[in-house]
Amino acid sequence: MSSSPPLFKPLNLQVDSDLTASAPQTVRDSLDNPSSLALNTTTVEVDAAGTIAIHGQAGVASDQKLHFGIPGQSGDGEWLQNAVAARDNPNFGVACFAGGGERLRVLGSNGNVGIATAEPQSTLHVEGDVRIGGSDSTSPPSPPGPSDSSHRLIFDDSDGVTPRTKEWIRNLGATDGYGLAFYAGGKEQVRIGADGKVGILTSKEPVADIELGGTVAMPDLPDLPTTGIAELIIDADGNLAPQLSSVRLKDSVEALDVDFHQILALEPKSFVYKSSGQRGIGYTAEDVDAREELRELVTYDAEGRPLGVHYKMMPVYLLEVVKEQQEQIVALRAELAELRGRIDAERSPE
After folding, report:
1. Maximum alpha-carbon separation in the chain
2. What is the pLDDT of residue 313?
3. pLDDT averaged over the chain?
4. Domain residue ranges of the chain, discontinuous segments joined by +
5. Which pTM value belongs to this model?
């Protein structure tokens, strides 16, 4: 039974001195042309397809490098290096060096790639700004950034001739309350705080769940009128919609048969809201709920407890009271006119 051929075949080089020396050594190819070989290793092998293998000394924790250099050029050049010789080290892998420093590392344990970091914590871990797109011929000016150490994801579609303001996302540091900021047109447009609160056109840490620093337009909201204005309501499911009154949009239309005078028994209160400390005036939902005829004016929570008062529906009740009072006024005026006629008749001489 024949044995399998070795994975690597020795590369025959003529070396002028010991390969284990730290300084670059002179080697000669088959045409006796001298070149430089810089190695701190005992074995250089190449397989039939031209793959080069660099082996260190057994039992010695040393870093092997594949160095790319240009003769006569200053600087450290670029090289690939096995990062951390011990395979049981979590940071074991391959590192790419340029300009004298490590720029990229691929971990052997999980395949995580780190750019500007030697300890990538995810599939792709970048320490610094990331740019998407842009021209290769011109370097547009960087967008204004924070003074702290936050990073940016920059979207760049410059044409390489006329630099323009780009869009980018940056993480917020401790001085800004943490979170994310979204930039467009050269300035911050949206901010999401670490607590999930969103600020739109505010450029500061939002204090409400949604904080808006401008106007809102909803031209595509269904059932908007073509003339005049529309009032908006929020239903029990949280849906925002115009307040509509057409009988075409309603079912079970019938007269409201209640004692409208009950609304006159309500007593207004002054109070302070617990959540904000703001003072207010009005009616309590519990007082309105206590009068059965007025419960159409009350909103309730999921447990059936009184929650709010439909103040905008109160004029419906009050108008009915006013209409009744108007009928009484008309009747009283007629009665008064009749009495005055009688008095005038009695005073008239026969």
Report:
1. 158
2. 93
3. 77
4. 9-127, 131-212, 256-341
5. 0.51
